[in-house]
Amino acid sequence: MKPSSKLSFKLFVIFVLALEVYSSSFPTKSILEPQLADDETILSTDYDGFFVEANLTTSDPTTNDTVRMILSLSNNNVLLIDNCADFQPYNCKYYHCIPYPGTNTTVRYQSFNATTIPVSATVELNNQYWQLQEKALLATSCEINTSQYLGAGRYGVLGLGTQGSSKNNFLKDKIFSIWLNSTAKSGVLKFGFDQKYANGTVGNITANDNWIVPVKGYIQITPYDQDFNGFIAFDLYGDALGFPLKLYKYIVDTIVATQWLNPITCDNDTFQPSCNYTGYIKDLPTISIATGQNHVHFNVPPEIYVKNAKSRDDYVYSITLNIKALDNSLPDESYVTPDYSNTIILDQRTMSSFYLVFDAIGPINLVQIYQASTDPNAIPNHPLPKWVYIVIICVVVLIIAGSFGVAIRKRAANRPTPQVTQAPFIVPDASINSNNARIVSGRDYQYNAQGGNYYQQPQGVQYQPPITYSYE
């Protein structure tokens, strides 16, 4: 291989490696599942919403059962079930279960209240980071006002609040975070924080020990706004973005009012109302929930609160709003217990826009809010800026192009003068015309400038004598 070819080959290899680094350093368009670390647990979903898999110890301490449980971000209790809605019963004879003496306790969740007794049980979410260290609660009955299959296929509710002794369930730092992919079909529960799940900071807000956020702010749908004093809760089991009944009516009416150039009407349903709207999704307004803390807003764009939207650029002829009213006077999906009647509940689809970090390490509980990364697998821990990779690739391309140009010019300069091996055809005495040719008997004779001879050629055909080249 000649030196110029070796150089070109080496530069080509460098170029390929640069492309490999570039392609592995930025997010791709596909949505990939992240690779789980030791401090991470997968969040899975089915037709009823998200769940986590927890280990329950049987009466044989060497045997565990892996079961599905609802993950609560607004409660600190581990709720096991004896009799409640469609939850799977917890068999105290089969599992490790010892009742504690004490009175019945009512535990209030968003869609039901449970009457419980305290029991000992072994529940493990992550054997290094979260295990039940205190008593669990066994639900003996539930108060519920819904015909939905609440708790179907679930063995109970696992609360990640830090109220009282429940903070001892965190075996290391009292911090966890939630990342959901953009389709809200899977996600990660991480006992810590990881920058790869974040794509820009929104801000920090304070919460109580069970991660309920107090709000003294407003709802803004430009150019309108409405004061709101209440609470915000996070619900991985939520089927729609929930607002208190009066606020819900205001939001629907305001969305309609913003479309005065493109009239829109909606039905009177309090759960996911349908509207006759013809136009682009991006022309609908953003719902901004101002928390009143540190200028933090939860901005909900139309591609999130419109259920049938796939992207902002969709052109549609009707829409279904992925919102619902919340009140204890409403049935089924819109029912909430009185404790949550003045609470905005962010559902799984809304939460998928954010990477949420729940931090109880310090003296107060903080919820740190980030824009969510769409593909954490494609982001390195310490990526270089994009312009660096672009400059590297451009320089490599220029070097390769220049090396080929130099090699071609060098080869042309070193090429020897070809030696003509064909014997010339000598034409007798004649004069040369302006084209260095002579006309004899109707034939052209092309003049050979080197040998001073003529070569016979049929008339009207450009002369190309058969010449063989030899190089020394």
| Strand content bin | 25-35%
Main sheet: strands, sense, barrel = 16 strands, mixed
In the CATH scheme, what's the topology name of the domain at 40-178?
Answer: Cathepsin D, subunit A, domain 1
Residue share in helices?
Answer: 10-25%
Mean pLDDT: 82
**Oligomer state of the chains in this structure:** single chain
What's the CATH first level of the domain at 40-178?
A: Mainly Beta
Low-confidence stretches: 21-32, 379-384, 420-464, 466-472
| N-to-C span | 20 Å
Q: Which CATH architecture of the domain at 40-178? A: Beta Barrel
Taking all Cα atoms into account, the compactness measure Rg is: 38 Å
The coarse overall form would be globular
Structural class: alpha+beta
Count of β-strands: 31
Question: What is the fourth-level CATH superfamily of the domain at 40-178?
Answer: Acid Proteases
Question: How large is the count of helical segments?
Answer: 5
